[in-house]
Structure formats: C-alpha cells, structure tokens
Amino acid sequence: MKKLIIWQLSIVAILFSAPSYAEPSALTLDQVIKESLQKNTSLFRAQRDFEDRMADATETTLLDNPEFQVDVVRDKGQGGTGTDLEFTQPLKFSQISGARGGYAQALANVASMEQKYEILKVINETTVLYTQVWLLSERKKLYENYANDADKMKKLVKESAGQGQTSPAASHLFSSDAAKLRADANAVDAELRQVRTELARLMGRSFQQAKLERPAFVAVPGNTERLLAFAQTQSNLRNLIKNRIQTAERRLSVAQQDAAMPEFGPRVFYSRSPNGDDQSYGIGVALRIPLWNQNDAERKRANAELRQARSEADLYAGLPQQEVIGELQQSASALQSRADSYFDSILPGYRKSYELTRSMFRQGQADALEVWQVREKLLSSENEALDALAQAVNARGALEVELGGKIEEVR
Fold first, then answer.
1. Quick check: 3 pLDDT over 60?
2. CA–centroid distance for 182 within its chain
3. Pairing between strand 82-88 and 263-272?
C-alpha cells in the first residue's frame, strides 16, 4: 500500500511538471487529475480488489491451524486418572515444496500491476472527460460569439444596403446565421450539461461554475525504442497478461501437487496411565490420502484461469509490441502536431484575415458575401481545431494504455 501511494504521488508530480498555461482562477487538468486520484470510486474498487488479492496471497502461505487433543482416562475399578495428549500439525506437500510461496508472490505481483493499470485508466478517463467539458464549453462560447457577430454584421449590411452599396439579401444571410448559431449553441449546451454531470459524478463535485483551461501536454517522444524500453517495465496489459499466465501456472502447480501427494500431519503424543506408573511419548504422522477427492475442483478452476490467460496472450502474440507502439506513437505525434498547428498558427491567421475583411467591408473595399465566406472558413477552422485537440487526446490515451504509463514519465 505504501509503494502504491508513492507511485500515485509520483504520477501527480510528473503531471504537474507538464507545461501549463492556466490563469490563476482556472481549474487545470493537473488539479482535476490530482483530485480524481483522491476521490474516484474506481480507485476504491481497485484498492478493494488489491486487498482481496493480497488476502488470497496471505491465505495461500498460511499453515492450517494445529490440532491439540486431550483425553482424560480412568480405568474401571482403579483410582486416579490418566492423560493422553496429542498435537498434530496438518501440512500440504505444496507448502513444503515452496510452490505456495511462489504462487503467493505471483498473486501479489499481479495485484500491484492491476492496481497501477486501473490508476492509469482513471487518469485517462478523467483527462478525456475534462477535455470534453472544455471543448464543449469553448464550442458553446464560439457559437454564441459568432451569433453576436452575425447580428452586428446584419446591422452593418442594412446600413450599407440603405446607401445602395450592397444587396439587402446579405442581411437575411447573416440574420439566418445568427439564429442557426444560437440554436447550435443551445444544442451544444445540452450536450455540455450531460458531460459535465458525468465528470461531476466521477469527481464528487460540481463543475457548473468551474472555468477550465485548454489541456497542454509535453511532446510525444519521437524515439520508438525509448517508448518500447519504457513499456517493458510498466504495468501495461501485455505485461499484466504475462504475469497472469505465471500466476495461473503456479496456481495449477499447487493444485496438482496437493492432488498427487497426501496431506500429512506430524504428530507428537504423550500418555500417562491412571496410576502414574506408566508414561509414554512418541511421534507419528497422520496421512490424508487423495483417493476420492484429488483436488479436482481446484485443478479445474486453475486450468480454466490458465486457458483464459493464454488465450489473451495468443491474441497479442500476433501484434508485435514494437510495431503497435510505433503506430500509436506516430498517430499521437501527428495528431498533437496538427492540434498545435491549429491553435498556434492556423487560427491566428484566419482570425486576422476575417478582421481585415470586415474592416475592408466597412471601408467599402469588400462586399458582404466576401465577409460571410471568410467568416464561414474561420468558423469551420475553429471547430476543426477543437476536434483536432480531442483526437490528439484520444490518440495520446491509446498510446499511454499500450505503454502502461503517462508519456510525461518517459525519460
């Protein structure tokens, strides 16, 4: 448990080291992830599963409780009482061979890996929901702002039409745009409320008044070998399946050993006759022979667990890890680069173009249709930028699940 807490804190520290462009009043992705790691119910379920597995590991190595038998003996027609004492310690062959110790260690390893894997999934789930809430909030503001802009353009077009400088038809174009954009804003708001509620349930707090900041991440490493080396040490699904196979094999070994060899119990006994003249003591062994029940139920369960783990391993065997990581790395890198390009260079250029086109319209150097066309291109690009960020986050999450850790951890 102590190691797990240290691992969680190290993840949070790494995340906080990522670049952040938030204003002091904004709620950042790092802060939400930190809070999620403290409150998310999935982590409590993961902790319960971890403790259940650790309890199984402890139970596997524990000896059965010894048996102590005391008999008070009185011979008929004689005075005094005698005593028979017997102490027996039941033992299984798998306890002596060390097979149970190996199985318990394998259980503990799988439990730790599964818990780390669940923590990573919680972080990525929180990241996706945070991004969706931010994206929908931005899209709602985008439509509302452009609806207001369309109203302003409608007034300018009417004034220009009154002076005979432009066609009155353009006024209806911007008027319809304003109505459509407000309807779209209402639809986005409805979707936003659903996703925001989903995030609130995940976190156990309200996000209705929260201001979120655009998620910012470190660049995806371009060296696939670094990513592969990192993945080989992490709690990803491939490594988890390998450990599950090892655990199932050791469980089956324990079951087979206990089925093949009798359970035995070393005995120590002492006897004293009623008159106290005769005393005896000795050692012995009690055997429980696996004649009718050869541990059949446990062997079937262990075989079923091993078959399942091996079938999962066979599925991944046809997908070389280096190839998969390489594909996901290129996808995540390309999509992140595309999203960054939208926000860093594409959108600023289109916004400047629209600003200049509107200025030219007011000076009579451009007509209303040109303004509308540039505005449509800008609005389309604004939406594409938001979608590009969502795609980049999803691609990044897919790569991190394959790696078994956050990209920020790769050194």
1. no
2. 37
3. antiparallel
Decide: helix, strand or coil at residue 328.
helix
Residue 279 backbone phi and psi in degrees, to 5: -135, 145
Q: Which residues contact 264 (CB under 8 A, 6 or more apart)?
A: 90, 91, 285, 286, 287, 288
**φ, ψ for residue 286 (rounded to 5)?**
-110, 130
16 pLDDT exceeds 80? no
Strand blocks (E) in 47-119: 67-73, 82-88
Two tokens, residue 59: 């139970």
For residues 171, 177, 179, 182, the Cα torsion angle rounded to the nearest 10 degrees is -140
Q: Which of 105-114, 310-319, 400-409 has the lowest mean pLDDT?
A: 310-319
Which residue from 124, 112, 130 is spatially nearest to 46, judged by alpha carbons? 112
Going by pLDDT thresholds of 50, 70 and 90, the confidence category of residue 166 is low
pLDDT of residue 225: 93
* Cα-Cα end-to-end distance for the chain: 25
CA angle 225, 227, 231 (to 5 degrees): 115
Query: Which amino acid is it at 336?
Result: Q
